């Protein structure tokens, strides 16, 4: 099923899939994933091609990376709020996509995770907010370095405007290239 | 005082538009109650017992006369003609309609006010000393630092969804009038080894269900690093504070479970990474913000004694409701909102407008809200105090009880708050009726009585010299009494004296506690110091000795 995505201020079709999604996951079953030979190409899911870009939960990626020889540049990882960026950051910098999960309207750990990925570890790929993502978070998420947002269908109308809820700011931000806030200049 | 520039104005106007949209989405069913709750709380809007309650931010308690006039107008137009000052120097309106709130916010924006981050799990209004800039013993005016923190913390993108609320207080004098030791972070302006000014940073204080006194994280922080250090603390808290249990989510629990050494190590490690970022404050920015708090145009005056030849009532008021000023010929004047028959901290629309007018006439057009739920005119000429007193007295605003037993801190209690177990306003009334002899009150000296209607401790009962906590016992309102608490730099948590007492016995219980104090005190000794010296036992024995005389 095609999923829409707000990416770099445009609504696009998501080229990435989660490992657990759909029948394809069967071809990448745990046995193969953990012990067997690389199955991505066999399943017609060559990394780097449309339909072949997979997002794996961080622990799955850790377990599978040796066997699959997954090239980070064609692989994405999904982080939970508990993942300590400070510790695992060096392993993440080369991915082309990092998805950060926001499990509820009140869990704000992902904002710090996003900033640490961008600012401390220099992550330049797609930084995607997933799970509970709504209009009211978009402005703040973007300022923390997120450039991709998985929204429920009903949240697409007005989402672009929500990114621009505020047109002034007090803090330096990622969306402005870490520029100094105006008044400190 | 601070005046908005185009950045501040843009942000506040856009916030009004955002909240109008959010309210509309809720009213048309696009947002669920739960989703809207998270949004409205970040805008100070609670759903309470009778109606929504809207808390309006008063940054570090400082108001212009125009702003206070607007608050009075809002109380009249959208509420039932009054507001309630809070212990964090804000004002609450208890009766607005949900659909009116966007219009109220739009009105507030016209006078550079808002309700941003006055509730919810985010960085709240930064509070400070209500005598900032005028009290003689001050090292430095804390208000520029409060304003710098206000800007940094407003819509901070990383810290908008914290584990729990986060409160910062800044003080610049040795005497702590902002309860900074029971804040999530306390910032104290102090002198470093070579005499330069910087900050002592306290963290992990808080009241509520688990009262804890804050601990020193850093003894001396150079002033240019204030924001980077706060950001490091917030970042550690945001990542590691508990989110599984609301009652264990405050930073005080994190500090306690890690221990202050480990907490400090983590903060310092994070700080080392960010201290040289754009968060570092330049002298130009410090000077720019400080410029907004330059002293008003004081006249050159000699000190005089306004009591000479005046009536007793004025002299009592002048002694108790005014405070020394660093400029000769001036006084800081308290406006008591603790009239015996009025709920502590309540102020009517007409009173707000009158106080605004008096500020224009006598006090350079500025008013402060105190942590103790009164107003202050910070800069009044001594020679004008008599005329000011007459105007205040005529409006019921000159009760000469500042710092005494009846200058109680009190939450709205069961009458308004959906969380409360018990009423607090009527208990305050009974205490006022019992202790109506001002000679006795003055003889008792400094006495902080603090009352909360429930464990959330909005009335700071743990740190009252006498604390009163409303508890529910089989559907009845009972009160647990603590003694020996203190909220200043010598902060201490009170000790429970014994089983809770019925509503009708609260005033008698206090009378017995005070009787023990009067018998046992040493010269010049405050109630709280007597408690600390002789312990709780003598007080407890007296209170529970025999039934109250009818």
Commentary on this structure:
The complex is a heterodimer of chains A (about 180) and B (about 550). Chain A is α/β, with parallel strands linked by helices and about 180 residues long. Chain A has helices at about 25, 30-35, 60-70, 85-90, 110-120, 135-145, 160-165, and strands at about 5, 10-15, 15-20, 55, 75-80, 95-100, 125-130, 150. Chain A has a single domain (about 5-185), classed as Alpha-Beta Barrel (TIM Barrel). Chain A is globular. Chain B has four domains: about 5-110, Alpha-Beta Complex (Sulfite Reductase Hemoprotein, domain 2), CATH 3.90.480.20; about 135-290, Sulfite Reductase Hemoprotein, domain 1; about 310-395, 2-Layer Sandwich (Alpha-Beta Plaits); about 410-545, Sulfite Reductase Hemoprotein, domain 1. In chain B, strands 16, 17, 18, 19, 20 and 21 form a six-stranded mixed sheet that branches. The relative contact order of chain B is 0.09. The model of chain B has no long low-confidence stretch (mean pLDDT about 95). Classes of the chains: A alpha/beta (about 180), B alpha+beta (about 550).
Write the layout of secondary structure elements.
The complex is a heterodimer of chains A (185) and B (550).
Chain A: E1 4-7, E2 10-13, E3 16-18, H1 24-27, H2 30-34, E4 53-57, H3 58-68, E5 75-79, H4 85-92, E6 97-102, H5 109-120, E7 126-131, H6 135-143, E8 148-149, H7 159-163
Parallel strand pairs in A: 3-4, 4-5, 5-6, 6-7, 7-8
Antiparallel strand pairs in A: 1-2, 1-8
Chain B: H1 6-27, H2 33-41, E1 45-47, E2 52-56, E3 62-64, H3 65-78, E4 82-85, E5 91-93, H4 101-109, E6 127-128, H5 143-153, E7 168-171, E8 185-191, E9 197-203, E10 215-222, H6 226-240, H7 251-258, H8 260-274, H9 283-291, H10 312-321, E11 322-324, E12 330-335, E13 346-348, H11 349-362, E14 366-369, E15 375-381, H12 385-394, E16 409-410, H13 425-434, H14 438-444, E17 449-452, E18 466-473, E19 476-483, E20 495-496, E21 501-502, H15 506-520, H16 527-534, H17 537-543
Parallel strand pairs in B: 6-7, 7-8, 16-17, 17-18
Antiparallel strand pairs in B: 1-2, 2-5, 3-14, 4-5, 4-13, 8-9, 9-10, 11-12, 12-15, 14-15, 18-19, 19-20, 19-21
Helix pairs in contact in B: 1-2, 1-4, 3-11, 5-9, 6-8, 7-8, 13-15, 15-16, 15-17
